[in-house]
TrEMBL record:
Pathway: Lipid metabolism; phospholipid metabolism. Signal peptide: none annotated. It comes from the Bacteria. The gene is plsY. This is Glycerol-3-phosphate acyltransferase. It comes from Planomonospora sphaerica. Its main location: membrane. Coiled coil: none annotated. It is an enzyme of class 2 (transferase). Belongs to the PlsY family. Probably interacts with PlsX. GO terms for cellular component: plasma membrane. It is found in: Cell membrane. The chain crosses the membrane at residues 6-28, 56-77, 97-116, 123-151, 171-193.
Amino acid sequence: MVPVPLPLPVAVIGAYLLGSVPVAVLVARAHGFDPRAVGDRNPGFWNMKERLGGRAAAPVFAGDMLKGALAALLALWASGGHTAGSGAVSGPSTVPVYLAVAAAMAGHAWPVFAGFRGGRSILTFAGGFAVVCPPAFLLGLAVLAGTALAARSFAIGARAGVFALPLLQLPFAPTAHVAGTGALMCLIGLRFGQAARTARRPS
């Protein structure tokens, strides 16, 4: 992969703007509603699935993951494309890619194109992690599928797959990288906490 003259701040800003594309809001608008005003008011896949069904909500699933993956790829390209034998990011590319994924997640959570009212960034994180550590991401998909079949619940499987990612990353990356993944997941926890506080406020 050939490096390009793209400064890190430009890559991070680009990642934030990618994350800010309000996929759920755009899809919901085509169906005549605002996901931030119905259900759990989260502009993400799960709320859209409850409103429209899995097939109609599939573009939200794909779009939110793609935002994270494209942000990570942008930073990987800009930083020279340094990866280990497993495909996991390494060396000088590590910090830029993690920063770009964080920026994309922040864009999804606080999107400049949608009044800074966004979602919880789970799928954007997952898409970014697919670039950060591809083998751990594939193992996470296996955990998701196995747990979903055992529990007969895709939602439970998805939670198991996401929460397993730091452990699954350990064989392929240094512990500092795993800590970085944990830090990204803290942003998801922050968004869930904010949503819980909002739900408790009197209307």
